[in-house]
């Protein structure tokens, strides 16, 4: 199925996780490309100038495309911008590199990682990384509301592995 046809299997509505969400309106098989994450293409420097100092809201429609570009779904974004974060996601974001090698033509596709039932909310792990120390204040700002029993409480990725995990892989 093509992306246009798949995007007709999803619908935006209010979410119990946070604000708006995107829901399946039919059963969707695993490993299905659902929708492209769209918006205005910015360089990292442009995004920094436009959105500097806004990380304190815990809300963004910026998606890092590659080392050169960011997608800003605040402008010309589609329904993919409303897909919420979860610590136990049923989708994932995949960066598809352009066959021509032109980094500005790379795309972000949202695809299912397992079968999704009609009525189920679509989610993926945002994998947010910040350049600063992950203080309790930042973790609260970027709080996760997914409700999964294994929820880590924040959308932010840890800067380093916990000691227990590091010991588990040590020889």
What attributes does this structure have?
Beta-clip-like, 171 residues, globular, single chain, alpha+beta, three-stranded antiparallel beta sheet, 15% helix
Put simply, the count of helices is 4
> How many strands, which pairing sense, and closed or not: the largest β-sheet?
3 strands, antiparallel
Weakly predicted, low-confidence segments: 163-167
Described by the principal axes of the CA atoms, the overall outline is globular
Q: How are the strands of the largest sheet arranged?
A: 3-9-8
Would you tell me the overall average pLDDT?
Answer: 87
Euclidean distance between termini CA atoms: 46 Å
Q: What's the architecture, going by CATH?
A: Beta Complex
Structure write-up:
- This protein has about 170 residues and is of the alpha+beta class.
- The chain has a single domain (about 5-125), classed as SET domain (Beta-clip-like, Beta Complex).
- The chain contains four helices and ten strands; from the N terminus they run H-E-E-E-E-H-E-E-E-E-E-E-H-H.
- It has helices at about 5, 45-50, 135-140, 165-170, and strands at about 10-15, 20-25, 35, 40-45, 60-65, 70, 85, 90-95, 105-110, 125.
- A three-stranded antiparallel β-sheet has the order 3-9-8. A three-stranded antiparallel β-sheet has the order 4-6-5.
- A hairpin with a 5-residue loop joins strand 1 (about 10-15) and strand 2 (about 20-25).
- The protein is globular.
- The model is unreliable at about 165 (pLDDT under 50).
